[in-house]
Design goal:
By secondary structure, the chain is of the alpha+beta class. The model is unreliable at 1-21 (pLDDT under 50). The chain is built from six helices and seven strands. The protein has one domain (22-138): Gcn5-related N-acetyltransferase (GNAT) (Aminopeptidase). The chain is globular. Strands 1-2-3-4-5-6-7 form a seven-stranded mixed beta sheet.
Length: 153
């Protein structure tokens, strides 16, 4: 199977012979207001590993513009989501990929470049990801810079 990556209207997309194009794009506020069942289910699935927010909390942050929703689509069908937020520190600004869930992750992981390009255009100096340990194996161009240890009280 031959694969290629090209830049189309600012969006990276991967196309493979025998497979339709795949896209990872920033959702509009109109799309966030009318999220479909599949997208909501994926956000809830990502929240199973993050006890800091409920689905309503995430939707509130998305609608207020404090977080961004990324949709991984195949033929206009949502197959994955990512939620990002930008944090400004005194010495740097970073984009955090905070929640991520979907099917066929291997189809969309190479498209994280879309988020990287957007983050750079927003003035971010870096991009980071919070997630389970398995992401370290998948995102080989990311460096482990710290770990977070948590103890429930």
């Amino acid at each position: 199977m031959l694969a290629s990556v090209n830049l189309d209207n600012g969006n990276l997309n991967s196309s493979c012979r025998h497979h339709p194009p795949r896209h990872l794009r920033l959702a509009t506020q109109a799309e966030i207001k009318r999220l479909d069942f599949q997208s909501l289910t994926l956000i809830e699935r990502a929240l199973l590993y993050d006890q800091t927010h409920t689905l309503n909390d995430v939707l509130t942050d998305l609608r207020a513009g404090r977080a961004q929703l990324w949709l991984a689509t195949d033929n206009d069908e949502v197959e994955g989501i990512a939620v990002t937020c930008i944090t400004e520190y005194p010495q740097t600004t970073t984009c955090l990929i905070w929640l991520c869930a979907g099917i066929s992750r291997e189809k969309y992981t190479p498209l994280i470049g879309n988020i990287e390009q957007w983050a750079k255009s927003q003035g971010c100096d870096s991009i980071s990801l919070e997630g389970r340990a398995g992401w370290e194996r998948i995102l080989t161009d990311f460096n482990k810079t710290k770990i977070i240890l948590e103890k429930r009280l």
